[in-house]
């Protein structure tokens, strides 16, 4: 977190010198803030970008952050970013949902994984073979193979 604080200090110095940050700088900072759990500041930077007429980060950008957090077991943080993305008006896609499903499976929250799948279907996104396999694999890894059979039909 100390490095991120240092980087934010440099960012503020840059602005004080009237050097305008570009999209790449904003994306780097937003990614760092998300990975360090500072969604409030990440949201502020996204708003700042949009107020300056820059396009907000895409769903692909946020999906990569969600996926990384899930791989490290930080699924609640990932889900918070997922909610943030929806609040921004972005529409998650199959990989975004799949990352969350995989994350919940990895931390043995098998009650949440099918809820994410249901949410995905309810917004009109069809699960693909990878999504279904992820859920089935999660049930299997967690010793719930019988649920995998019924959860996949």
From TrEMBL:
Keywords attached to this entry: Repeat, Transit peptide
Pfam families (UniProt xref): PPR_1 (PF12854), PPR_2 (PF13041)
Upper taxonomic lineage: Eukaryota, Viridiplantae, Streptophyta, Embryophyta, Tracheophyta
Organism whose genome encodes this protein: Triticum aestivum (Wheat)
PPR repeat locations: 22-56, 58-92, 93-127
The protein's name: Pentatricopeptide repeat-containing protein
UniProt cross-references to PROSITE patterns, sorted A to Z: PPR (PS51375)
Membrane-spanning segments: none
């Amino acid at each position: 977190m100390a490095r991120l604080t240092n980087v934010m200090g440099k960012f503020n110095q840059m602005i004080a010198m009237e050097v305008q940050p570009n999209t790449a700088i904003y994306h780097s900072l937003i990614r760092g803030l998300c990975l360090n759990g500072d969604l409030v500041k990440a949201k502020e930077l996204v708003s700042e970008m949009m107020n300056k007429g820059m396009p907000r980060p895409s769903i692909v950008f946020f999906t990569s952050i969600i996926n990384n957090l899930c791989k490290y077991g930080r699924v609640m943080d990932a889900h918070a970013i997922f909610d943030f993305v929806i609040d921004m008006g972005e529409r998650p896609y199959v990989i975004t949902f799949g990352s969350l499903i995989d994350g919940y499976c990895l931390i043995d929250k098998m009650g949440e994984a099918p809820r994410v799948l249901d949410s995905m279907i309810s917004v009109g996104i069809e699960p693909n073979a990878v999504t279904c396999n992820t859920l089935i694999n999660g049930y299997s890894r967690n010793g719930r193979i019988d649920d995998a059979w019924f959860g996949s039909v």
